[in-house]
């Protein structure tokens, strides 16, 4: 039996504090007040009989005992979130056919997990899943080639389609490791470094270019890259910098050691990733699927992203139904 004071909420607070080092950011991320965050940590430390963080340092840093306990905590919470996501999808055995399109940002972490969950429920179903950029997913949905799609939202209302917002994915700046010496003046450090653009036909490119135009920001047009991983590789090789999103950044894990990520040095903006379903599918199935997606995005993508980039807390987040 767990000691009194070791609660699921306390473990979640501790995990977030370890990632952010900040009571304020943890409060924003968890939705609790700052006093409640501090009380949760005190209760947990009292129950364990040891300090998990060095309370005299800002940002907070873990004690040796805290580092050891964090490793166990992350495993426990990961398993609980996985179990929750598996229980969220209700029985889909009544379906005879189901076709889904998923944004390719999910390829590394979320899509494999979702497919295995669905496969357990779709026992007598003809099932098709494709992954592609948002524009292609949206076109397939408009052509009624898909029952359900997960892609970046354009913000436009579509006849015959119901939208379920899933996650806010803020745009960020990525640059070659060490290229930015002064984070307070990023654009000066990148003055002589090329902007690497996504190819113009991609929705993410259109969203970025529209925002740069709104901000009256003009950069030389030299590189236009259709592959996200190729673009990240070019950043890692010191060829240029780019505007992307945390979900895109996390997808490029092989390049993380050679890339620095920053919040935008100009007006922030974000995209929304949503689940879309045909109006004739606007029943419990897409709602259950949306909730499963939110749970998986939180555990498989958002939590690891905030652990690596704590300043994303409160910006990269699931949208409650």
Set out the fold topology.
Layout: H1 8-20, H2 23-30, H3 34-48, E1 53-54, E2 61-62, H4 64-88, E3 97-103, H5 111-121, E4 126-132, H6 134-142, E5 148-152, E6 161-170, E7 172-176, H7 186-189, E8 194-198, H8 203-214, E9 223-225, H9 228-236, E10 240-244, H10 246-251, E11 259-263, E12 270-278, H11 284-308, E13 317-318
Parallel strand pairs: 3-4, 3-5, 8-9, 8-10
Antiparallel strand pairs: 1-2, 5-12, 6-12, 6-13, 7-10, 7-11
Helix pairs in contact: 1-2, 1-3, 1-4, 1-11, 2-3, 4-11
Short account of what is shown:
By secondary structure, the protein is α/β, with parallel strands linked by helices. 43% of the residues lie in helices and 21% in strands. It folds into three domains: 8-87, Orthogonal Bundle (Arc Repressor Mutant, subunit A); 91-169 and 270-318, D-Maltodextrin-Binding Protein, domain 2, CATH 3.40.190.10; 172-263, D-Maltodextrin-Binding Protein, domain 2 (3-Layer(aba) Sandwich), CATH 3.40.190.10.
